[in-house]
Amino acid sequence: MKIGQNLSSIKKQPLKASPDSFEMDDSNSPDHPQGSLLKKPTDDQLLDRLNRTMESAIRHSCYNDAIFYADKILALSIHDSDQHIKAIYDLANAYYLNKEYMRCVQLIERHGNSINKICTFQYLYTEKFRILTAQALLGANNIEACINVLQKEVKEEDEVKNFENTVLEGEEYNYYKGLRHLILAKAYEAQENNKLAVENYKKALFNNCENFEAFERLVGNYLLTQEEREQLIQDLSFTQHNLWLKDYYISRIEGAIREDCEGSVIINTIEPSIQSPNVKNFCADEDEIGGSGAYYSHVSPPQIKDIGKTPEAKRITIDSYEGRNQREVQILEVLYNSKNSYIKIIEAEKYYNEQNVSKAYEIVKNLIEEDMYFFSAIPLYAAILIELNNVGDLYILAHNLVSSSPELAVSWFTVGAYYYLVKKYDVSRKYFEKANKFDKHFAASWIAFGHSYAASDESDQAMSAYRTAARLFPGCHLANQCIGMEYLRTNKLPTALISFEQAQKINSKDCLVYNEKGVVYYKEKNYKEAEKLFLIAHDLSTDENCKTYETILLNLGHCNRKMKKYEEAIRYYEECLSINNKNPSTYASLGYAYHLKKDFRQAMNCYNKANFLKSDDGFIKTLIDRVLEDLQEVSIEEIISGSSY
Amino acid sequence: MASKDAFHLHTDLPDDRRIEKELRFAIDYLNANRLSESAKWASELLSSLKSRKSANSSMTTSFMQDSLLEGGVHKERDNDADDMEEDEQEEIIDPSTFTNDIDRYPIDNAQSFDYTFYERKSKANDAVNCARILFDLREYRKACFKVKPYLHPRNQSAIFIYYYSLFMLSEQQTEEERFQSSENISRSCVTNPDMITIENALTEYQKKDQLNALNLYLFGVVLKKRNKKERAKNILIQSLNTYPLLWGAWTELNMILKKEDQDLIKENLLNHWVKNFNISSYFRQVQQENDSITVNGALRRYFPDSVYILNEIGHACYLSQRFGVALDIFKRLMSLDPFRYEDMDLYSNILYIQENYGELASLAYKTFKCDKYRPETCCVLGNYYSLRGDHEKAVLYFRRAIKLDSEFLSAWTLMGHEFLELKSTASAIEAYRTAVDIDPTDFRAWYGLGQTYEIHQLYDYASFYFANAALSRPQDARMWSALGECYQNNKKTRDAAKCFEKAEKFKDTEGIALYKLAKIYVEMNFSKEEAAKFFKEDLERRDRENYEGKETQEALAFLLKFYYDKKNDTQAKKYAERLIEMNGPERRMAKEILDKIESPF
């Protein structure tokens, strides 16, 4: 009570004081008897002080403090003044930061009148308030209201524009417009209204190409197909200052680091011209080797792999004057060399898509070691660990994530992935479901959910999970691909083909899609077409040591065998064996090819090996009996002349 | 230069001073990089080099020429004090800076070789040395970790020790996994994922031509493990051409060479003096034992006490079935190098074949004392127990040999033999199959497989395996005879005849082929003349070897009838008289014919 009284008494003070009172410094005010002794603060000084306290509280994330002081500022400030409006905004913002969303909304609504009064003069504030309201509503999961707030604004836009034309223009205007669309899009996404969400994300990006979140949502959440993505980048307008962002976006979209970067920057190096950068680069002392030289002056050439094609000359356009060297540096390249996570993850994804898992693993492992909470890398990491059957790492990853951030979908996804890897599919499903509940827009989890059904042979459920994924993530080719694979499993070839074609349209760089398509044609006995597709898959896959590569080779072998090109088939099978020489079915196939080629002895050898590796296979046994009969027809002369030893 | 033809060498050897220097360099270099087997080979060779003091006159002249070439800086080089001085003047090279420059290592004898091994003292090399020590202590993971920050194409030693450690680590892990899994060793599908990582990393370097000889060697080994043999061959040859004294690279290469690769070796391998050693062991590998022996014999002039060369000769003799000579050589070897284990299993094989029980027992005792956990030792013991008839115990030892080295070929084959003795066919087949899997040209295992099926009268299977055996070793009469018999049992007489002909061509020592051939000719009514010829030859040989039996009577009876039908009374009489002296059913027939011939009418 007492404090309240005091406050109200102080509150009256500024009302009495003239606006120019702050001109009078305390040192210049002998009128105040206390001035010389106690230095009683003036109201402005007090407000200033409070403002500073509040701001520093926000800066240091002490939101409760911030709320307290912001509230006091609001109470002390003069109604309907700029100051008052700012105080409202600050308090609302503090509420928002402290996650008191509805309180924030309530505050803004209560002061709606005064805000409106001011805002006819200052459009900026209207924007700020509305965005804050919308964000708070979104945070409070009151999506309808959020959309209402924003849409009203969109509708009002034209009116406002009419007489606020002069005030709001250019970048700032676009910035807020972009922000508005972003929030709107997020709200639509929460409502699962993908179409409007995508539209708004796009608008957000058009208005402000630096709006990374919108881009991340569109691309990272697989909302766009490949074609749409490319179109989007073309439509965006970049300035000289954020050309590097274009490089980054393109890299993301193409799934490979862009080679001919546009974004570059001129830097000054204060080195004497003799010790020009390339000298330093090439002659790094042996002791320094290995220390990751990764700043501007240290772009050491051996470390550049993918973008190594940029010629040295282009990168170092030396323009020396007054002992200073000017160099043009590709920003993306610098980022790459400084092992920036966002850039590295693109590289890792590229390798993963090429089925070069071991290399991807190397990169992602380093990333995760450096920053365990780099969440956007975690689904990829989990996928790689599953591929490599690395149970231990996956376990500790899941464990750490759940204990540190149990509120994130990705943590539960990792747990599910762990159980998936140890083949406890029903348990894994439970966790994938949990992850889905936390975040409806987490593509990896949906797909994995489907996988866990597929792994336990529950085709129908798997399909429905994949279908949901396909609906939610139109840019994710995996969903369509998996649907196709399920169809293929149940031998519904034409439908499978449609799914694969859709997948291919979304992502034309995954070798698996071509492989599966090939399998469909193979099953339809269209071997020529199948071979063509397998060959594409073969070209797309870079790692010569992974399972997929082996499968593709095996398929190529089968194809050629069917087309009676036995020599070719044998070559492919042999290549398979160089990857994995313990696979009985490869030996059986190789034997069969030899058998058809009428090289019975080789056939026998291969069948025997297959039989040896997998002794309980009746099919191989029959083949052996058949080839033994054929062998009886071979005379000794033929054996000697055709000996391959 | 003339020596080339005279001594059957492929390239001239330089004077032994240079050989000595090269070997010394090699020992230090290889040892520093923990290639102990190769270093061992080099140092044994060095210690067997003909000592300079007893050098004959021809050697001294070559010395003088040499010093003239070098501008007469070192005129007298016969005492050790000079050596010391010389070392200081020698150019110091740091092999860690070797790149892929073949020119850097003087291959040609005409180029001078004045190098001692030295590594620059730097922080990077300290780390490399630390990693090497950890490697010695089998702390492979830690070694990798220590040296990882220094991986760079310019620091080849770091690359080598890093991937070498990783290689050892992954080998160790696969082995452990294999033991843990309840699966049968021969059928185990444990694959090594790290091998892929190593292969990929080294491929990257290799593409940019950033590997030195040692790393190329490692790369070759990895490729071989990954079953990419053709690639491995090329890489290993490249490695050897960069640094010819890398003996390990050669042994790896030799294992995957085939007969068709002769030109590959002869043309692509640079003519360094070590090539003589390479070629000789290659000849042994591709069953040209005599060529191997000649080259090695020539080499012995330079390295008179070399146990390696002696062993090679012994091995070649064993393979060409000259057991007596081989036995002498192995005996020599044991006296020169009493704590030897390499190839002692071959020695024990010979003793086994000759049923020399006493010496086999003593050999078993010696090797067992020397080191009982060597696959070779286990094989010797296995042979010993087998000869004693204790086949179960023999199997036990062969099994241990396999546990120690899962790719130890002869243990698999011998174990197959033991199982056959124990009548456990399935195990025998499995053992033989594994042997054949490891080396598809191992004729003993093919033969064993054939035998196993033959016992069970599955002649169609058996003939397939015997055919493989015969094709793997076409100059061996035993294989052809076995195949022939099989065909006979399978009623493929024509093919059988072909086989026996082949067997006869390769000097069938057991003497079955001729007899069988003759019988086939009789049975098939091919040509009596031919059959008679074969019987006659067979008889002659039997007479020479003073060996009589049922077959002799049969031959005599046939010849008697043949000549009687042809009215060649004198010949017929000769055979009849011999036949009468024997006991048997043919005696009556001989008597009748003799009576007919002798009675005027």
What form of chain B results from the Cα inertia axes?
elongated
Number of strands of chain A: 2
Determine the number of helices of chain A (DSSP H or I, runs of at least 4 residues). Answer: 34
Main beta sheet strand tally, sense and closure of chain B: 2 strands, parallel
What percentage of amino acids of chain A are in beta strands? under 5%
Largest sheet: spatial strand order of chain A: 1-2
Q: Gap between N and C termini of chain A, in Å?
A: 106 Å
Question: Low-confidence stretches of chain A at least 5 residues in length (pLDDT < 50)?
Answer: 1-36, 163-167, 271-323
In percent, how much strand structure appears in the residues of chain B?
Answer: under 5%
Class inferred from helices and paired strands of chain A = mainly alpha
| Individual helix count of chain B | 32
Order of strands in the sheet with the most strands of chain B?
1-2
Structural class of chain B: mainly alpha
CATH topology name of the domain at 2-168 in chain A, in short, is Serine Threonine Protein Phosphatase 5, Tetratricopeptide repeat
Helix content of chain A: 55-70%
Keywords (chain B): Cell cycle, Cell division, Mitosis, Repeat, TPR repeat, Ubl conjugation pathway
GO biological process, one term (chain B): anaphase-promoting complex-dependent catabolic process
InterPro entries (chain B): APC8, TPR-like_helical_dom_sf, TPR_rpt
Pfam families (chain B): ANAPC8, TPR_11, TPR_8
Overview of the structural elements:
The complex is a heterodimer of chains A (645) and B (601). Chain A is mostly helical and 645 residues long. Chain A has 34 helices and two strands. Among the domains of chain A are: 2-168, Serine Threonine Protein Phosphatase 5, Tetratricopeptide repeat (Alpha Horseshoe), CATH 1.25.40; 241-338, no CATH class; 341-459, Tetratricopeptide repeat domain (Serine Threonine Protein Phosphatase 5, Tetratricopeptide repeat). Chain A is 68% helix and 2% strand. In chain A, strands 1-2 form a two-stranded antiparallel sheet. Chain B is an all-alpha fold and 601 residues long. Among the domains of chain B are: 3-117, no CATH class; 548-601. Chain B is 69% helix and 1% strand. Chain B contains 32 helices and two strands. Chain B has helices spanning 3-6, 16-32, 36-48, 57-69, 80-89, 123-136, 140-147, 156-180, 193-207, 213-225, 229-242, 247-256, 262-268, 275-285, 289-300, 307-319, 323-336, 344-353, 357-370, 375-387, 391-404, 409-421, 425-438, 443-455, 459-472, 477-489, 493-505, 512-524, 528-544, 550-565, 569-580, 586-598; strands spanning 91-93, 115-117. In chain B, strands 1-2 form a two-stranded parallel ribbon. The termini of chain B are far apart. Chain A binds chain B through residues 286-287, 289-291, 302, 358-359, 362, 388, 543, 545, 577-582, 601, 604-605, 608-609, 612-613, 628, 631-632, 635-637, 639-640, 643, 645, and chain B through 120, 122-124, 148-155, 186-187, 189, 191, 193, 196-197, 199-200, 226-228, 430, 433, 437, 440-441, 460-461, 464, 467-468, 471-472, 483, 487, 490, 492, 494-495, 498-499.
